[in-house]
Design brief:
The complex is a heterodimer. Chain A is about 75% helix and about 0% strand. By secondary structure, chain A is mainly alpha-helical. Chain A has one domain. In chain A, helix 8 (about 135-165) crosses helix 9. The longest helix of chain A is centred in the last third of the chain and has 30 residues, at about 135-165. Chain A is globular, with a radius of gyration of 18 Å. Chain B is an all-alpha fold. Chain B has one domain (about 5-215). Chain B is about 70% helix and about 0% strand. Chain B contains eight helices and two strands; from the N terminus they run αααααααββα. Chain B has helices at about 5-15, 30-35, 40-65, 75-95, 100-105, 115-125, 130-160, 180-215; strands at about 165, 165-170. A two-stranded antiparallel ribbon of chain B has the order 1-2. In chain B, strand 1 and strand 2 (about 165-170) form a beta hairpin. Chain B is flat and about 60 Å long. Classes of the chains: A mainly alpha, B mainly alpha.
């Protein structure tokens, strides 16, 4: 029991730090660069992503175990995973609308963006490709969501400080944000020491 | 330069803007994920461009026809479902044109179904405009994306493994770091800065010409 718990949290910590969604694989980068700027919005977005990844892992784990042995799996894999994400999206939407209407008014707008995001689909696909079992799926999903939230906070704080500095005009906005994430990504690569598997 | 000619040039520049001055990757920040990570060889870049082209055009066309009839809260899930349906023929075509790239692309091939250039552009443009502008806009965005992707793929493959399309080139020592994601971030950052500088430069040239003509 203790060993299982240790393995669970070890995989979650690996997903947060060593296999961070943004800094090692650039998952969910497009949305992030245009997304929420305030800390409370980022927390809400991150919590949504974590919950949706964990819920979708339950369905995708079963589908992956049934279908991954077929040669045509790489063609229908996105469709099956997207159907699972749609089911989770509908469950979360109706659950929020019926039981927490105040919360739905605040986070309802970001629900589609949070569900159909590289930071949700990426960990599901990675867990499938690496052949994880059910608890490893959940651990990786949990860690990935937390890691994405932390990376979002880091990047938004970095962007806030960069906006106050005197940069060349060509670098203001998107270019300097990418350079900043690239340097952080270099730091993470120094921590890991090798290229992570796709 | 006459004012009418400047207006025509501005109009053409506006239509062709997704190629350089309003490039979807470098200026707007769409579709970053494949450009940063899997543009490490030219084969991968061409494969991703083919898949995006075969997904974006049909999704935008169908969105243009039926998008307005879908309830707003379910539009993004619909676009993602459509793009994952069109992913199947796109991946088969990619396998025909550029074989043996599926394993090299890993998870980034199926991740293209939630690509912001396909989904985001469908919601932002394809739903609200007429058919011909939507088709032209989609084609120009695909070409703009493919230009950036293949340029970065060529440079990164050449510098990281001294090959072009898998053929070795005798040039200099390899720098394997160029195949890693952090170099992808930095290369895209510098190219984005270049695109922004180009956009400012052309805008200032046209503005100066227009003001000079008005002054005359």
């Amino acid at each position: 029991m203790m060993q299982a718990l240790t393995d669970f949290f070890l995989l979650a910590m690996t997903a947060i730090f060593l296999e961070n969604a943004i800094f090692t694989r650039a998952l969910g980068t497009s949305r992030m660069l245009i997304a929420a700027k305030r800390a409370d919005q980022i927390f809400a977005f991150g919590i949504l992503i974590t919950v949706i990844t964990i819920c979708a892992s339950i369905f995708t784990c079963v589908i992956n175990m049934l279908l991954m042995r077929y040669s045509w799996w790489y063609l229908v894999e996105p469709l099956c995973y997207v159907v699972c994400m749609c089911i989770v999206f509908l469950i979360v939407r109706y659950a929020l609308k019926d039981f927490f209407p105040g919360l739905y008014d605040k986070v309802g707008q970001m629900l589609p963006l949070a569900t159909f995001n590289g930071a949700v689909l990426g960990p599901l696909l990675l867990s499938g490709h690496q052949g994880y079992d059910f608890w490893q799926y959940l651990a990786f999903g949990l860690g990935s969501g937390i890691g994405y939230t932390m990376a979002l906070l880091l990047v938004s704080e970095g962007q806030r400080r960069l906006r106050r500095t005197n940069l060349p005009r060509a670098f203001r906005g998107l270019p300097i944000s990418l350079l900043y994430i690239g340097i952080l990504s270099l730091g993470f690569y120094g921590l890991i020491g090798h290229q992570l598997p796709f | 330069m006459k004012l009418e000619r400047i207006r025509k040039i501005s109009k053409v520049r506006g239509y062709l803007s997704p190629l350089f001055s309003n490039n979807p990757v470098l200026i707007r920040g769409l579709a970053m994920v494949p450009v940063i990570v899997v543009s490490n060889t030219l084969r991968n870049a061409v494969a991703i461009s083919i898949v995006i082209a075969c997904m974006a055009l049909p999704v935008h066309l169908i969105t243009n026809f039926f998008g307005g009839k879908i309830p707003r809260w379910f539009r993004i899930p619909t676009y993602v479902l459509l793009s994952s349906l069109f992913f199947i023929p796109a991946a088969l075509l990619m396998n025909r044109v550029v074989p043996y790239t599926v394993d090299g692309l890993g998870v980034f091939l199926p991740l293209l179904v939630i690509n912001s250039m396909v989904i985001g552009k469908a919601e932002e443009y394809a739903v609200r405009h007429k058919l011909i502008p939507v088709v032209l806009d989609a084609l120009l965005h695909i070409v703009g994306f493919a230009l950036v992707m293949c340029t970065i793929g060529l440079v990164r493959e050449f510098l990281s493994s001294a090959t072009i399309w898998g053929q070795p080139i005798e040039w200099m020592n390899k720098i394997p770091a160029f195949a890693l994601p952090f170099c992808g971030f930095m290369i895209v950052a510098f190219l984005a800065a270049g695109a922004k500088a180009y956009r400012r430069f052309t805008h200032r040239v046209l503005l100066a010409a227009a003001m000079k003509d008005e002054g005359e």
